[in-house]
């Protein structure tokens, strides 16, 4: 309220009231609808806290409920498995980019050898660890990978092991702030805001077999890889991916159980016999033992049952009506769960009754973008690149790879994306390569193969079949005719002349 409004209010209160009402209405019109305060928004509770303050203290309960949904619902593990299968698959492939072909191949071979024994628990290979890390990130919100250097024992060339830890190992009670460091939910930050250490509990706090209740230990940040989806600026911990749909999913699970029980009740047919014979009714009475030495009659309902009523009892029936109204509720809820988890409806439910090529392709395009975003913006910078760097540094320190000033740059080949219609997609890819929209190496890499190795394999195969004099339709040098998009008039047999001139002119 300005000076003029106050003066008018003092000398003409009624006019001042009209001005105040008009100003209030004007402010309401100009402001955001979501910022208005009234009956429609009085039950809307919104917090102004930072990302970390909203997470602090609530993560253990959110994780527990997310894990319960994965354990005890059919759609929880489905969401985790489908996204992991597309994001990690059978494992991404690193391609060393030093410019030295021999050195790059040596690094790739050494990675494959090391990957078979890199698990600190001795059970999974590197691709199995990556899949488990992705599953844990979706289910629990985050995962920790600890790098452990072990002595050389003659069985491995790179003495580096990886131990995956659930986020429960992070000591969330560690909170401290002073002029030098800030410890927030078990993560220690330096004065520049970068992570310097993690405070980890030696035992899982939920383990039933605990060797010791030791305090958390400080582990340097250089020894820990922390994978989680960062949704807000400054967010230090990851939230389970199922948290936005957890309540709706819990309601859905209860509804599905109620529908099944309802169907079971509807399937029951029972007959009741009433008699005035006291001896008979007493003999037919079924009881069960209760606490305190008291008995009670068993209340049950099963198909084709015949039971006798005691003297003086009357039969009253409950006739549940069959209804198909649940279908719309279930389908809409499943669609909401799929959208909240970043999947399509058919991926979540497996329901393809109304699906066609166009609808499947449209849905999969958006899903693939979400998967690629997680792969290249989260998985690669937070886990894969640091893991490759740790591997190459350990290999150089122990002489398995020659030391280079520029290190060993790497590019990652992600798992291939299965086509919806293989023929249509392959024809489109061929035309894309011919038009220059992508190169042949990029095409091969999109299918999860290393282009150089693919060329070597093709060269060896073609030399072998030529040497043996074998003719196969699978040989692209012979099978170009009939392929849509391929040149049709310059196809020749291997080893034959490609000239279009008549035989006589060739002789001349």
Task: For this entry, give a set of tags.
disordered C terminus, 3-stranded antiparallel β-sheet, 12% strand, 14 strands, alpha+beta, single chain, extended, 508 residues, 5-stranded antiparallel β-sheet
Helix coverage percent of residues?
40-55%
Strand content: 5-15%
- Could you state the order of secondary-structure elements as H and E? HHHHHEHHEEEEEEEEHEHEEEHHHEHHHH
Strand order in space, largest sheet: 4-5-6-7-8
Report the radius of gyration as a whole number of Å: 34 Å
Uncertain stretches: 497-508
Mean pLDDT rating: 83
Give a concise summary.
Helix content is 44%, strand content 12%.
Describe this structure in words.
Residues 476-508 are annotated as: Disordered. The protein is α+β, with helices and mostly antiparallel strands and 508 residues long. Among the domains are: 3-35; 54-66 and 111-240, no CATH class; 416-487, no CATH class. Helix content is 44%, strand content 12%. Strands 4-5-6-7-8 form a five-stranded antiparallel β-sheet, with no helix packed on it. The radius of gyration is 34 Å and the shape is extended. 19% of the residues are buried.
How is the topology of this model organized?
Blueprint lengths: L2 H9 L1 H18 L20 H5 L3 H14 L2 H13 L5 E4 L4 H15 L10 H15 L1 E8 L10 E6 L10 E2 L4 E3 L2 E3 L5 E6 L16 E4 L3 E5 L17 H21 L3 E5 L3 H7 L2 E3 L5 E3 L7 E5 L16 H16 L3 H5 L7 H41 L12 E4 L8 H14 L4 H7 L4 H18 L34 H5 L1
Parallel strand pairs: 10-13
Antiparallel strand pairs: 1-14, 2-3, 2-9, 4-5, 5-6, 6-7, 7-8, 11-12
Helix pairs in contact: 1-2, 4-5, 5-7, 8-10
């Amino acid at each position: 309220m300005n000076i003029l409004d106050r003066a008018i209010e003092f000398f003409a209160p009624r006019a001042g009231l009209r001005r105040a009402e008009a100003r209030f209405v004007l402010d309401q019109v100009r402001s955001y609808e979501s910022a208005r305060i009234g009956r429609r928004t009085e039950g809307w509770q919104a917090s102004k806290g930072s990302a970390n303050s909203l997470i602090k203290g609530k993560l253990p309960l959110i994780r527990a409920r997310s894990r319960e949904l994965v354990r005890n619902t059919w759609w929880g593990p489905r969401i985790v498995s489908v996204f992991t299968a597309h994001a990690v698959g059978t494992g991404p492939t690193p391609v060393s980019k030093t410019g030295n072909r021999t050195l790059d191949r040596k690094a790739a071979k050494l990675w494959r050898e090391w990957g078979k024994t890199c698990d600190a628990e001795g059970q999974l290979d590197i691709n199995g660890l990556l899949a488990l890390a992705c599953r844990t990130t979706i289910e629990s919100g985050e995962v920790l990978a600890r790098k452990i250097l072990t002595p050389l024992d003659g069985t491995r060339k790179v003495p580096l092991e990886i131990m995956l830890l659930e986020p429960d190992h992070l000591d969330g009670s560690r909170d401290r702030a002073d002029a030098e460091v800030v410890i927030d939910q078990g993560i220690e930050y330096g004065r520049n805001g970068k992570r310097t250490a993690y405070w980890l509990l030696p035992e899982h706090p939920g383990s039933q077999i605990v060797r010791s209740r030791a305090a958390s230990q400080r582990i340097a940040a250089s020894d820990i890889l922390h994978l989680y989806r960062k949704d807000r600026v400054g967010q230090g911990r990851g939230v389970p991916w199922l948290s936005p749909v957890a309540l709706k999913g819990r309601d859905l699970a209860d509804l599905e159980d109620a529908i099944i029980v309802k169907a079971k009740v509807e399937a029951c047919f029972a007959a009741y016999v009433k008699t005035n014979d006291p001896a008979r009714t007493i003999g037919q009475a079924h009881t069960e033992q209760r606490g305190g030495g008291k008995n009670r009659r068993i209340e049950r309902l099963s198909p084709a049952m015949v039971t006798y009523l005691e003297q003086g009892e009357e039969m009253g029936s409950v006739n549940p009506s069959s209804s198909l109204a649940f279908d719309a509720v279930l389908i809409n809820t499943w669609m909401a769960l799929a959208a909240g988890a970043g999947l399509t409806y058919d991926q979540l439910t497996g329901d393809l009754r109304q699906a066609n090529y166009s609808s499947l392709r449209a849905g999969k395009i958006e899903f693939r973008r979400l998967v690629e975003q997680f792969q290249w913006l989260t998985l690669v910078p937070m886990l894969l690149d640091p893991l490759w760097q740790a591997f190459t540094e350990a290999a150089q320190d122990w002489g398995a790879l020659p030391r280079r000033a520029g290190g060993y740059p790497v590019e990652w080949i992600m798992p291939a994306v299965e086509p919806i219609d293989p023929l249509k997609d392959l024809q489109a890819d061929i035309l894309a390569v011919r038009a220059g929209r992508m190169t042949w190496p990029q095409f091969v890499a999109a299918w999860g193969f290393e282009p150089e190795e693919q060329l070597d394999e093709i060269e060896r195969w073609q030399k072998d079949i030529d040497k043996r004099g074998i003719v196969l339709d699978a040989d692209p040098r012979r099978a170009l005719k009939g392929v849509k998009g391929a040149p049709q008039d310059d196809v020749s047999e291997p080893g034959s002349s490609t000239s279009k001139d008549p035989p006589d002119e060739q002789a001349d």
